[in-house]
Amino acid sequence: MKIALCDDDCIELQHVRKVVESYIESSIPHTDITLKAFNLAEELLRDIAQNGSYDLLILDIILPGMNGIELAAEIRKQDTGCKIIFLTSSEDFAISSYKVDAFYYILKPFPDQELELQLHRFFSSLQDNKNAHIIIRDSGQLRRVFFHSILYIESAKHTIFLHLSNGETCSCYGTMNEFAAILSKDGRFVKCHKSFVVNMETVVSISAKGFVLTNKVLIPISRQAYADVKQNFIDYFFGKG
């Protein structure tokens, strides 16, 4: 497990590091975690290029040179799986943070408990997301499909197509209503159209045209459902769902 922090304010960076270290020590003391801190976006990018990606990034947005949103966009070109928590004193970047699939957005100044809560959400989601799955019959064989591997689900007549993050598509007999009912128990999925269910963790952006996913596929959102789907996405994004 690797976590990186980036903030040009050394005092703030030290404070965030202390909160993270305290949480790890008190809540998950036996977890093997590498924690690194950076003052500049460019330093973090160089480290990723040399040493590989991180599981969690906690980024200030207002940075000298490349800002936190631009930094996240660069990272997303190579890594769509890491979670990103933004820290900022401005609300102006909230919408932009959607485009880089942020895990959460915290306004400064914030109580330590706010960051601790999001750390708890992050580590809890790792365990929950890792094990959640569905069993389908694909080409005559029973197959286990993990929820975290699903980008979106599509229905055509009485066939369900599961489009996976590795580029594979598997299929089985069933109806969208049946699958939507199963997946609705997991907060990351939303039915946005009569023929589509989307894993919100794979969404890069949302508009009236639909969801754009990490694989650049556009999934339509029905006009009647748009307001509810958008609110569902916002609630999930900000950890209320």
TrEMBL record:
Q: Report keywords, A-Z.
A: Phosphoprotein
Q: Which residues carry this modification: 4-aspartylphosphate?
A: 60
InterPro entries the record matches: CheY-like_superfamily, LytR-like, LytTR_DNA-bd_dom, Sig_transdc_resp-reg_receiver
The UniProt entry, under SMART domains, shows: LytTR, REC
Record keyword Phosphoprotein present: yes
According to the entry, every stretch annotated as the Response regulatory domain falls at 2-123
Q: What does this protein do?
A: May play the central regulatory role in sporulation. It may be an element of the effector pathway responsible for the activation of sporulation genes in response to nutritional stress. Spo0A may act in concert with spo0H (a sigma factor) to control the expression of some genes that are critical to the sporulation process.
Q: What is this protein called?
A: Stage 0 sporulation protein A homolog
What is the protein's species of origin?
A: Parasporobacterium paucivorans DSM 15970
